[in-house]
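Extended Data, record Thioredoxin-like fold domain-containing protein
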Amino acid sequence: MPIESPKQKLYIELITGSSCPACVTIKERLKTIIDELNPEQINFQEIDVLEEIDYAVELGVINTPAIVLNGKLAFSAVPSLKKLRNTLQDYLK
């Protein structure tokens, strides 16, 4: 569940599965973009879908990886690096 500090503008949850090669790819992309942007304003958490299945269902997650931004499902597939970067930048404005 998102918990934001006053300085944070963006809370990212990456919902992953144990045998999900795409999850590794998107995690690397997210870390790269977070480092490029303002990491002090971003809180990142990885969540195993099986450990938090009720939360995933509540969000509407039907496959992994899924990216949740500030408590709302933003991507349910692997977006391009450009699309992901642009979306995160929009949240930080």
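Summary. The two ends are 22 Å apart (CA to CA).
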